[in-house]
Amino acid sequence: MLDQQRDYVLRTVEERGVRLVRLWFTDVLGNLKSFAISPAELENALNDGMTFDGSSIDGFSRLQESDVLAIPDPNTFEVMPWVDAKGAEARVFCDIHNLDGTPFHGDPRQVLRRNLDAARAQGFEFLVAPDMEYFYFEPPVAGQKPVPLDEGGFFDLTSNDVSSSMRKETIRTLETMGIPVEYSFHEDAPSQQEIDLRHTDALSMADSVMTFRMVVKEIAAMHNVHATFMPKPLEGVQGSGMHLHLSLFSGENNAFYDESDPYNLSLVAKQFMAGLLRHAAEITAVTNQTVNSYKRLVPGFEAPVHISWARNNRSGLIRVPIAKRGNASATRIEYRSPDPACNPYLAFSVILAAGLKGIREGYELAPEADANLFEMDDDVLLKLGIDQLPQSLSDSLRIMEQSSLVLEALGEHIFEWFLRNKRSEWRAYKTQVTPYELTRYLKSI
Amino acid sequence: MVANALEMLVVYPDPPPTDLARMLDLSGYRWKAVSSTDEATRNEPAKGWAGAIIVCDEDPEAAWLFARSLRKRDTPVSPVVVLVSGAQLADLELRDDLYEDFCLTPFHPRELEARLRHLLWQSVGGTRPELIEHGGLALNLETYQATFNNHPLDLTYMEYELLKFLAQNPGKVFSREMLLSRVWGYEYYGGARTVDVHVRRLRAKLGEEHANLIQTVRSVGYRFGQSRWGS
To answer: Could you say which of B145, B156, B193 has the minimum Cβ distance to residue A78?
Structure first.
């Protein structure tokens, strides 16, 4: 099978006149990395991988084992939809291996593979559909606030037309790259867009999220516009989230569905939710990995703050969308805290690990919290046993550090590197004296 | 590289010239030498002869008779390569129906090998590149290329394999499990949902207008094109 796949890739390169093949992989922080090879090198790359210096890349650095192998996953080979005059380009995602062929522990894609294999060993396939939110801005000027397109007189056309035509172009491109779109719309905040992707298995989806972010940015750049996945780029309006619709399947059956349950949720679904809720604070550093992420997770902007679940309450961390009656395969839960600046491979890994632990250990799901939690006093919440998500990157890291669940899901290599890297990000942030502080304190104290 | 290493060639006469036998052995072909039409019939494998090599420069008349007998059967043997001497070139005239290709004796082993390989490769895929066509969709099974209304469709390997399988069986309904076992049949993530995911991708790539080429058959699975029964 693998031979046929390789053959398919090589033939396609030849038939389509591909001049450049981009090998894609992802660093620990979720940045897309790429190096290009010529078609002549491809066969060799498919068989033996390409050696590169891992220490040149964030998270892949360890002096004593700096050389690693990028082995293309031929099933992800796609000809890129934009063709320039010089000929077609293609991309293929890679798994990173050590020179002895074992999976490289610093490779997020391998981490997700390992977690998906664990799910399979429990009899489950993990499916994910993300709602991707992002902003279009005028090209940024250092130190200035971002300028939404909808406000500026930047274009002769009304800027709404520009945004929506870029969004449409993005969707067309995604679809030709095999990333089907469910819905898309202009979000509430100025210049904010949302594109919801149709569910796939988690590994394909993590690849798709990487492709998605690249395509959105590329197409914006072609129009001299800056697209950003920064979680909270503007004060006072809602930020960009990446709500994740999650389900587990056993064979053809949705393991989250139970016809006889009033919520149509199976015991498996409830235990998975209970696992996610119990370990939510531990995995937040991964699902919300920037200092800025925590400025989104505040009351009043449709982002979750409390660790709770409900059917129709968007202030909760988990929402259970009401599936159309009898549509068992659409039964799912929506995990609402992640933002699009996360590393999707790692985020899917820790979310899955938390849910699976709930199933394995038979956690019990707390009752639904259907009231608006933003309006409740802290002591009422305390009585209900409803906790809050970590308030800052620093809080998140402190909780993650104690988590054997996250350590196991990410593996020691990434776990330690991530904590180290993110602590230094927090330290750099902490030393800032912000305009807020100057305005608030300089005169009054 | 031998396309059909398990299939058997018939060689005339028995014994064949030693340089021919050596060439066939070195190239990894399986072959059986015969000295008459009867012998060829008696020794024919169940799947039939994959081709024939007929040496004409020893006893031309008998050799051409043998060649004609291979073509007269209900299922004619093909491809046939004849080996002729330079003086026999005129014999080829009016016998075009008896052979696919010829080689001059003394032959160059690598030339004969190349001719044979090319002929057998063609006969494996039918005598021309195999093409599946349906509406505006064309799949070239040899080059793996898919086009729609002559525009190339860029598909991943599994998308291509799924489309190929469906297009080879138009009008037939397949369950997800069936498609998984026939098209995937190896380790993949996503279980039976994988089929839905790939169908969506294919529909997205085919474009809205042609998305209904692959139809969802409620609570059963998928069908390519219209039902055979016109429903």
So the answer is: B156
Q: What is the pLDDT of residues A209-268, one digit of tens each?
A: 999 999 999 999 999 999 999 999 999 899 999 999 999 999 888 999 998 998 889 999
Task: Answer yes or no: do A200 and B197 touch at CB < 8 A.
Answer: yes
Q: Tell me, yes or no, if A205 comes closer than 8 A to chain B by beta carbon.
A: no
Nearest CA in chain B to A327: B219
Residue of B nearest to A253 (CA): B192
pLDDT one-digit tens code per residue, B52-99: 999 998 889 999 999 999 988 878 888 999 999 998 998 888 888 899
Residues composing chain B? 231
- Give the per-residue pLDDT at A326: 63
- What is the rounded CA–CA span in Å between residue B44 and residue B41? 5
Domains of chain A: 2-102 (3.10.20.70), 114-438 (3.30.590.10)
**A9 contacts in B (CB within 8 Å)?**
157
pLDDT tens digit sequence for B3-32: 344 478 999 999 999 999 988 887 778 889
Domains and CATH numbers, chain B: 8-124 (3.40.50.2300), 131-224 (1.10.10.10)
C-alpha dihedral, A255 to A260 to A264 to A268, nearest 10°: -30
Residues of A with Cβ-Cβ distance to B144 under 8 angstroms? 7-8, 11-12, 15
Report pLDDT for B127. Answer: 40
Q: How far apart are CA A393 and CA A399, in angstroms?
A: 10
Distance from CA of A182 to the nearest CA of B (A): 10
- The complex scores an ipTM of 0.75
A17: left (phi over 0), alpha (psi -120 to 50) or beta: left
Of chain A, the percentage scoring pLDDT greater than 90 comes to: 61
- Please tell me the distance from the alpha carbon of residue A370 to that of residue A382, in angstroms, as a whole number: 16
